[in-house]
Known about the structure:
A: alpha+beta, B: 9 strands
Amino acid sequence: MAGGGLRRKHHNRIRCVQRPSRSGDAGNLLAPTSVQRTGGGTSTLTCSIVDEGSAFGASRRVVLVRGNAIPFDASRARIRALTGVLTPNLQRRSTNGAQSKEVSASIVRGNRSLQVICPLGDLLSVAQLHLLLNESRDNAQWAPIEQSLRAQTSIDSGVVDAPAQPAIASTGFYFNTGDCGGNGEQLRERPSRTDRSMRVDRARSVPRAMASSGECCGPSDAMRQAETRVAPTASRMVDDCDPPMMATVTFTMAPEYQFLSHDTIICMVFGKCAWDWNASDSWWGEPELWVHFDGLGSGGLFGPGSAPPTPPPVDPNNPVAADTIPNCAAANLDPPRQAWCSANSWPPTAAETAQLDSAINRMRAKGGECAQLASIIESLRNRGRIRIYTDGAHPFSGAAPLVTDGTGGNHWMVLSNSWFTTYNSPSKATAQEPVRRWLDHTLAHEGDHLSGRTHTDSGGFSTPNSSACS
Amino acid sequence: MSNKTVDRARILRGIAASAAALATVFAFKVREAESQSAPNRRLSIEHRLPDSLYESHAGGRSRMIISRSATTPYHRELLRIAELVLPDSGVYTALTLTPEWRREFERAASGVPRAVTFTRLTEPRVAGEPGERWWLFDVDGTFTPLALTSGAVNYYVGRFRDIVHGRGQFRQPGEDGPDRVEFSYRTRVVPTTKHNAHRVVELSLVWNYWCSTLCGMAFSYERRVYFDVEGRVVYVDGDGPASVSVS
């Protein structure tokens, strides 16, 4: 297993502490309340965004800002290109697990100052880190983050008039949470500790007013008390702790950390425990990088309930009048629905419609189940429920919902235009793969899905009627 | 055996007995708290899930992303409960299925996928225990959800690994082939006033699998579990059959 040597890193969190603990460490971000979990290592229950020794342990650095993630090209090759001498250090780190010094750089994005701190001090100078950060600007990776930052600036502007100033690279910052609950406790960095795994920095110029109670501690006192009652282990955690200040959280590698082929260092900017992988799609296509997990989360078994009831059957002669087409405004559209929403040929052209009608007629002429499929497809055609997209725009050449309630004619279908422009007759069918397909075959295939039928061969090319009805 | 050794053994047995008693009490308390958090709700067995996970296979063609975010231990607890709540019985009785699929729904209560003639020589992945049914039935060997629970996520994690390791029902053409699978699961806890609730836990899952240009299945699924200020489940939104696209 590629990730066999990985160990979990510490989980950390930003928190607002209502009351100092007896140990005197309360509020010290370097000593967050930890919960022992299975599999070794300690982790807090929050900031789960920070992966525990998963694939993020490699030379790609991920900066998270307000729910956005951005991968920088901090690959070994890139670092080597910057310095020319990094490989030995990288290898040494991978074998002895030595902690690296931190290197930090101040940058301004989206009218906000950011502090990026990474445990690359043995490998990069500040100037080189700047190079990496600036390089990312050229390929627009910052765009979604800057959007978030501007939004945050807009929010902050209601609290403080002064724009955020560039953060000052330092290790001695702390933020005072006296306004977070009114008890005046501080989250303070422990100066003597050098092997910290997390740090919160703050621009000195940010007015304390920004850390107002309303901003930092969301819910009312009553709500907070209620939550504390429900979750007694919360150690007086404050919900919605979201200090509107410049905070940089750096996660360094655990000593037992080992580099994979893609070493990643995670840096969190803003310390907000949320992320959006949509912003990191550039990870797609990277060489193999994977880990297994052996189970996280707290235990606890609860008795299963009784078996659920079964639904009543639907009268096939009187199906429920479902009327379903993709909601293009919805989030997380699956690829076929994306194809529907972005189809470039809708309604179909006259030529496409003529081809469609001919295919429907041929299918109907075969009678039996083929005629039923023809009726379903004709219903879609008459309702404008067949859309055509450019071939190659999606990993499939046709799609439809799997309809299991007998209302297939009320749904939709998308088809690649290749079935109309290239593979539009038996003589122009695809190669044997293992079956030869053309427009009629594909219509029957998708028609079968609309009738609730699934695939019948190991390649997924065929459905019960795809050959017989074409 | 010396008296000292005997005494030590007694002490150890006593400690063990005390620990067992404490564990029993703790388990009872946990169940009690659970029942208070989700009164009249059936709860599933808890499956351990990673907080965050990224897996990439075959040059990134298949990937899995899990992100279970919680900003406080309280949110963590809400998330845990949200993933345990099983669908109300009304979700099952409201299903509208053709007679064929109704029979399949009943058969699939076992959690075992349909036997398909083209199944590869691999052990089919079971969805789960019948009493914690989160699934509707399987499509081409992959179960589709009726509710997004920890059991469901656990299943899709396993199913993802089945496929990328060549244990799927379909032929795997190899690294250069067209097969690919994407699975993501994300959660978040946010304030709300809907349904007189205080917090809502939003769970979202995306499954996209393509075995060829005319073979695949995809769906997005979301669940929202609303909690009142006392941390009790007051409403569950989104349970029901997934709208599955197939190719």
